[in-house]
C-alpha cells in the first residue's frame, strides 16, 4: 500500500493540497497522513523562565494547532473515501516533513505553495523549495 504525506499550514493553498492528496488517496487506495509542523528551533534563545514553561507551552500550541489547523483539514477529507491519520510536531517544517515521510514510508510529500513575499523567500527560503532540495521522496507543490 502506498502512503501520502501532506504538510499543511493555515493557507488556502494547504487546503487545496489536502483536497489534491485526498483525490490521489481516494483513487489509488493510498493511506493519507496530514501533518502540521509548528516552526521551532532547538537553538532559539529562551530565558530560564521560558524554558521552565516550555513543555506546557508546547502542549498548548499542539492543542491549538489540532483545533485550528488539523480539524479544518480533516473536514476537507469528508468529501472523499479517505480516513487520514494526523500529527502536529515542532521543528523545522522541511526537516520534519522529510523525517515523517521516511517514518511513514510515504511515496509522495504534498504541500501547498506558500504565499511568502519574494524578499522573505530570498532571505529565508520556502518550505517547498527546501523540501525539493532535501527530500528523496517525490514532492508535489500544489498552487
Automatic annotation (TrEMBL):
Pfam families: Usp. SUPFAM superfamilies: Adenine nucleotide alpha hydrolases-like (SSF52402). Residues 3-143 form the UspA domain. InterPro entries: Rossmann-like_a/b/a_fold, Universal_stress_UspA, UspA. PANTHER family: STRESS RESPONSE PROTEIN NHAX, UNIVERSAL STRESS PROTEIN UP12. Belongs to the universal stress protein A family. This is Nucleotide-binding universal stress UspA family protein.
